[in-house]
Design goal:
By secondary structure, the protein is of the alpha+beta class. It has helices at about 20-30, 30-35, 85-95; strands spanning about 5-10, 40-45, 55, 65, 75-80, 100-105. It has one domain: 2-Layer Sandwich (Alpha-Beta Plaits). Strands 2-5-1-6 form a 4-stranded antiparallel beta sheet, with helices on one face. The relative contact order is 0.35. It comes from Amycolatopsis endophytica.
């Protein structure tokens, strides 16, 4: 089955996950069983630390604090799913609650 990265973009909150409303957190936790019911599979999922923890390595080896791209939204987390195709991956992405950002679905290269 093809694999897709589902990238979750949100505005960064001062206290990280502690600022996520309980109903949004519950909706996030409910996504896994829904994905399984669709016949798809979560290969990996991970939340990310705040962008202040990020370091960016540039061509030539210079290292700077923070993310490579500066924007209001940051990548808050991601997961990889195996699905029947892009349409199902998009349906999985629609299951996620979005507070202020967006969800990006991107096919992974097959190696």
């Amino acid at each position: 089955m093809p694999q897709y990265a589902i990238l979750i973009y949100e505005k960064e909150t001062p206290n990280g996950p502690a600022d996520i409303p309980p109903e949004v957190m519950e909706a996030n936790l409910a996504v896994g069983p829904k994905i399984e019911a669709m016949g798809a599979r979560v290969v990996h999922e991970q939340g990310l630390q705040p962008v202040a923890q990020a370091r960016t390595i540039h061509q030539g080896g210079a290292v700077t604090d923070g993310p490579f791209l500066e924007s209001k939204e940051v990548i808050a987390g991601f997961f990889v799913v195996e699905t029947t195709g892009l349409e199902q991956a998009v349906e999985i992405g629609k299951l996620l609650p979005i507070m202020d950002g967006a969800v990006e679905v991107r096919p992974l290269l097959e190696m």
